[in-house]
Amino acid sequence: MEQAGVPRPGASRAGHVRQLGRRLVTIGPHRGAHRVALRAGISVLVPLLLLVAVGRPEWTPYAAFGAFTSLYGRAHRRAERTGMQAMAGLALVVSVTLGVAVSLAPGSRWLVVPAGALLAAWGSLTSDAYAWHPPGPLFLVFGLAVCAMIPAEPVDLVIAPAIAAASAGFSLLVGHLGVLREPGSWERPSLPRPQFRDALDPVGSRAHLIRYVVALSVAGALATALGWVHPYWAMVAAVVVLAGPDLASRLVRGLHRIVGTLLGIGVAAVVLARSPQQGVWAVVVIAALQVLAELFVGRNYALALLFVTPLALLMGQLVAPSPVGPLLGDRLLETVVGSLVAMAVLLLVPDRLPRRRTASTPE
Q: How far apart are CA 233 and CA 336, in angstroms?
């Protein structure tokens, strides 16, 4: 007979499973997502249109990652958002530059794996120290990996950061469009002060940095060794899973990434079949998908992936077209592998790492 107040064995586990299921299908509140979405759409649209218009679509990735500056500080006041975006934009420019440098190095296909893993750990620590929102090193790793896969010339070490910086600067201007409507609302930008010591204090923070290095190294090395065309997709999927604030959130993001990508592949198949994959209209579709993604990314990540998936694939097609069928298959396979690797690392690497014993410590 059960004693009153004593839960049945497995009852707590069942409750966690039910809670996990609810979080998978929950859609969060709107919270002004349309404003963030419009800023992001404009920030992506204008630089990409300019580059396509001058016949330089191969430079659009540099501009796109600079434009991702607009995604930071979505819930902050304009002065705080500008400071956060300035620091995040600088980090994005650095990641693009590092990616070009890796592309120029011998063995770049393998070099991107340790470079991305170390950048992920540094980006996670920096994100915590500066309290970035969205948190985590996702866009930094994505920028480095994509730019490392693009054939480059030495002059691109100047061109790429210049384009990324100009795009990031334009994003900052777009973030101030509201001042035109309310001139009295302008405030001096507030640059954040990094708190690196505090970022390393919380329980599990050091272990989480190790998780980034291990998960991205394993996912990237596996995808590269198997000869997959876009090995960085596995690395990016691993980053997404690890970027949550706690274990439950990270596992939910992993499931969201897999389910959302599976559904997003269907949307991408339609978009790539019916929309132009080159030129001005392709850029217009990319900007529209960016707007739609931002409307849902903070509310339900799986829904956002219905638009993120075709967005990422169409941006790749803009630079280097490839057959659609294999492209869709690679995206799904590499996403699943990267997500599962990260979820396994989450469960295998504990938050509390054992302390290293010293010579005076008894056995």
A: 10
Residue the block writes with tokens 């970022």 = 199
- Local structure of 63: helix, strand or coil: helix
Query: Percent of the chain, pLDDT > 90?
Result: 58
Q: Where are the domains of the chain?
A: 32-179+203-348
State the DSSP code for 70: G
Taking the C-alpha atoms of residue 171 and residue 307, their distance in angstroms, rounded to an integer, is 21
How many angstroms separate the Cα of 285 from the Cα of each of 44, 66, 217, 225, 272?
11, 19, 34, 34, 10
What are the phi and psi torsion angles at 207 (to 5°)? Answer: -60, -35
Lowest mean pLDDT among 257-266, 299-308, 345-354: 345-354
- What pLDDT sits at residue 361? 33
Mean pLDDT of 275-288: 90
The percent of residues above 70 in pLDDT, for the chain, comes to 83
Q: Taking the CA atoms of 176, 178, 179 and 184 in sequence, report the sign of the dihedral they define.
A: negative
Backbone angles phi, psi at 86, to 5 degrees: -60, -45
Give the model confidence (pLDDT) of 64-123 as tens digits.
999 999 999 877 777 788 888 999 999 999 999 999 999 999 988 999 999 999 999 999
DSSP string, 159-194: HHHHHHHHHHHHHHHHTTTHHHH-GGG-----PPPP
CB contact set of 69 (below 8 Å; sequence gap of 6+): 43, 85, 88, 89, 92, 167, 168, 171, 172
Cα 200 to chain centroid, rounded:
22
Cα–Cα distance for residue pair 231/235, rounded to 1 Å = 7
d(CA 207, CA 349): 7
Count of CB atoms within 10 A of residue 247's CB? 12
pTM for this model (two decimals): 0.87
Specify the length of the chain in residues. Answer: 363
Q: Which residue stretches of the chain are H helix?
A: 11-25, 33-53, 60-67, 78-104, 108-130, 138-149, 156-174, 178-181, 196-200, 205-225, 232-242, 247-274, 279-296, 301-319, 324-348
